[in-house]
Amino acid sequence: METLIRAADWNGDREQIRAVREAVFILEQNVDPAIEWDDQEETAQHFLALQGGEPVATGRITRTGKIGRMAVVKSQRGSGLGFRLLEFICEHARQNAHQSVYLHAQCHAEGFYRKAGFTAEGEEFTEAGIPHIKMVRRFD
After folding, report:
1. Count of CB atoms within 10 A of residue 128's CB?
2. N or C: which end of the chain has fewer CB within 10 A?
3. CATH label of the domain that carries residue 22
4. Element (H, E) at 135
5. Could you tell me the pLDDT band of residue 121, with boundaries at 50, 70 and 90?
6. How far is 6 from 118, CA to CA, in rounded Å?
7. Alpha-carbon distance 134 to 127, whole Å?
8. Is the confidence at residue 116, as pLDDT, over 90?
9. Which residues of 62-87 are buried (b: 16+ CB within 10 A; e: fewer)?
């Protein structure tokens, strides 16, 4: 089944974005719903991956170049979809004149982001009760 990755609009695609993030962050990782939704939702550029019209992955980038809320539903993990989504977001950033992007990677996913060209910076920290590390990718 073909997977479509596209830019998404928070107002128009909110339910699909929320469905993925709720499944991954709130139900699987026990992130408090009160901190999952923030003041960046309206201004960030969101992205959706759809398979057969169903949402299977999402992510966003803020105006400052911070990639976040990367989530892939359990059934799609290991398929390469997360990497494709991340590359799609990075290409969007390049096309919009960002010289670099950064993210707060969950420490267990550090290797995934390294393979995508990100470099760890600084010390580990806890966010939403989960160990994270800041990672940066610079564009040449």
Report:
1. 14
2. C
3. 3.40.630.30
4. strand 130-138
5. very high
6. 22
7. 11
8. yes
9. eeebbbbbbbbbeebeeeebbeebbe
The tokens describing 45, both together, are 């550029």
For residue 140, give the 3-state DSSP assignment.
coil
Per the structure, the count of domains in the chain is 1
Q: What's the whole-number average pLDDT of the chain?
A: 95
pLDDT digits (tens, 9 = 90+) for 12-51: 999 999 999 999 999 999 999 989 999 999 999 999 999 9
- In angstroms, the CA 40 to CA 21 distance is 15
User: 30 phi and psi, to 5 degrees?
Assistant: 60, 35
Q: What is the pLDDT of residue 42?
A: 95
pLDDT of residue 1: 77
Q: Which domain holds residue 78?
A: 3-138
Which DSSP string corresponds to 4-53? EEEEE-HHHHHHHHHHHHIIIIIIIS---HHHHS-TTTTTSEEEEEEETT
Q: Which two tokens stand for residue 60?
A: 């966003």
